[in-house]
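User: Hey, my collaborator sent me this sequence without any context and asked if I could get a structure. I don't really work with proteins. Can you help?
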Amino acid sequence: MDTLQEHSIETIQAKVDADLLIVKTAVEKSISEEVVVYGEDTDLLILLCHLAEKNSHCIFFTNDKQSSMKNLKVWDIQKTQQVLGEHVCFQLPFAHAITGCDTSRLYGIGKPAILKKIKSDHHLQIQGEVFLKESMGKDDVCKAGEEALVSLYGVLPLEGLDIIRWRTFTTKTWH
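Assistant: No problem. I've predicted the 3D structure and written it out in structure-token form, which is a compact way to encode the shape of the chain:
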């Protein structure tokens, strides 16, 4: 890092969450210039779509581990936001947390399914809003998460996760 600074290259070091620092820095820089974020983490893409400003310069996201230009994927964040819609972009951290971040995921439910459901399911949207409000307590967030899972698995809200577990178990083990 010292070598970069000696060559007048601005450096920032994350003490806690590097993904959030990277995205906030990119969003801040995009106020005055185009920005390219290199990374291999879906978390960066989710945060960029959630936090990028509409009226800023372009922000591009690309994977830096592509083997050739032929396989290179570049995301124009503002265009991605337009395709997804403002409401879905607001709910992306919720959808990403529910469907799995870097190390976990739900059985049988992927990111495309939850994005489609967030667009059409008002109850799921409300649970996402509860999840994203900083003022909500732990119990409220836990309840919203459970109700979101129940909604995603397509059962009635009154049935709950225990019924889902029982049905899944009996379906898999009943001959």
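In plain terms: The beta strands are 35-38, 59-62, 74-76. You can pass these tokens on to your collaborator as they are.
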